[in-house]
Amino acid sequence: MNISLLDYGAGNLPSVERALQRLGAQTERVSTSAGVAKAAALILPGVGHFGALLRALDRDGLRESLIAAIERGVPFLGICLGLQALFENSQEAPDLQGLEILSGSVRVLNGAVKLPHMGWDQLQAKAGSGLLEGIDSAAYFYFAHSYAVPYRAEDQALETRATCSYGGEFVAVTETENIFAVQFHPEKSGAAGQHVLENFLRIAS
Amino acid sequence: MSLARRIIPCLDTDGERVVKGVNFVALRDAGDPVTLARRYNAEGADELVVLDIAASRDRRPTFLETIRKVAAELAIPLTAGGGIRTLDDARAVVRAGADKITVNTAAVLRPELISELSEEFGSQAVVLTIDAKWDGDRWRVMTTGGRVSTELNAVFWAEKGAELGAGEILLTSVDRDGTQSGFDVALTAAISKNILVPVIASGGARWPQHFAEIFCQGAADAALAASIFHDEIQSIRSLKEFLADQKIQVRLPC
Question: What confidence category does residue B17 fall into, taking pLDDT thresholds of 50, 70 and 90?
Fold first, then answer.
């Protein structure tokens, strides 16, 4: 299985790459529209600022090719900011549009909690999940973010497979057709995280 | 269900070896960083910190190589620092495989460094390390490996650091470091309860009870220790089992 990692300068790309290689996957970094168009499976890693990611995608002309690949049915995994990018927009960069593939907005976590939401947290299952298959429901995953997609049962119940609660309930795992995304960092989440990546490789192959 | 308290081993390195001091001096060799990283990753450590305490410029390439080798062993987050003075220094450390960078002395000398790092990498990747020492009526910020005293009040400096964009404070008690007499509960509580970013307590750990104390009374979000883990005085797994028995939420390997 050859996995294409979208390379736009994200800090966590090397660790995602290492985690996949540990699982025996072939990986390739792609940074052009042509590269995205040829991908058999795509991962959008991400950490940092929503605006930086979307601007980088636009700078490199990757927005359209990424949307086209996803619409074509290429298995896609978004990680952290890579999940947030799929939605309509973000409070972190209000002047920019997200990829608008999923419905919902990214908002700053609020409530009486310390930010960033930094560390190991558990999930609340909402529906059967391919990414979480075979993983203990009490497993912890590593989060490092201040923004998230607040969970709206009325229009996100179908694709939201798990949420997490910290300054409100937010989307932690979302899946629909060939589109998969997680707010946590599977590449940094020990054995449970490796298992998530393994499940994605299985689904994608 | 809530965020787990984190247990973080720390590797103080001088180039390619791990060293450990008492009250920031009297360094001795404590092992190979790659071997220790592999062990901690398997034992259930929640993160790993690697600090280059030699931090002299000529040792830099060795330190970056150490980060690369350590990062290759880990499926948990890695924080690296020691001697980071510029954005370029930080970029090199991130490129070598660190998820977060930590700054200390350079941030005291030029606080804007924190904002620059936060803008480039996001605040979740910027850890402000504060070495604090009790001075009769307040905790004073120390720099240069705990050797140089400043006029800064540690409580105010932590607040300022968070405002500038630090996503986390790594707080070391210079008084307790290496003494194994327990974390500084008063210092940690004073800072953790005053700011809205997570605080990692460091310095003085020996017994599992020390960790329970710093989480419950010190309001620490994470606790860091070095020699008790390196010397196998305390295993991370049994420490976490102890904390779980005390109803403190920790991540136990499933």
Answer: confident
Residue B16 lies inside a defined structural domain of this protein: yes
Mean pLDDT, residues B5-18 taken together: 91
What is the interface size between A and B, counted as CB pairs within 8 Å? 101
Strand B168-173, strand B126-134: pairing: parallel
ipTM confidence score: 0.91
Flag whether pLDDT at A10 surpasses 80: no
- Strand pairing partners for A89? A97, A105
CB contact under 8 A, A11 and B222: no
pLDDT for position B55: 53
Average pLDDT over residues B106-131: 95
Q: What is the mean pLDDT of residues B237-248?
A: 97
- Report residue A73 as tokens: 């049915």
Transcribe chain A into DSSP letters.
-EEEEE-SS-TTHHHHHHHHHHTT-EEEEE-SHHHHHH-SSEEE---S-HHHHHHHHHHTTHHHHHHHHHHHT--EEEETHHHHTTSSEETTSTTSB---SSS-EEEE--SS--SSEEEEEE-EE-S--STTTT--TT-EEEEEESEE-B--HHHHTTTEEEEEESSSEEEEEEEETTEEEESS-GGGSHHHHHHHHHHHHHHH-
State the Cα–Cα distance between residues B41 and A191, nearest whole angstrom.
10
Instruction: Kindly report the CATH number assigned to the domain that includes residue A85.
Output: 3.40.50.880
Q: Which domain holds residue B39?
A: 6-245
Q: CATH code at B61?
A: 3.20.20.70
State whether A117 and B221 contact (CB < 8 Å): no
Give B 193-232 residues with CB within 8 A of chain A.
196-198, 221-222
In-domain check, residue B1: no
Domain hosting A197: range is 2-204
pLDDT given at position B246: 97
Mean pLDDT of A152-169: 94
- State the total domains in chain A: 1
In this predicted structure, what is the pLDDT of residue A185? 97
What is the number of structural domains in chain B?
A: 1
**Element at B208 (helix H, strand E):** helix B208-216
The residue count for chain B: 254
Whole-number Å distance between alpha carbons of B51 and B101: 10
| The residue type at A152 | R
Interchain contact, A191 vs B72, CB within 8 Å:
no
Whether residue B80 is contained in a domain is answered as yes
Query: A117, A145, A185, A195: which one is catalytic?
Result: A185
Q: List the beta bridge partners of residue B19.
A: B12, B29
pTM: 0.94
Active site residue A185: yes
Amino acid B53: pLDDT: 82
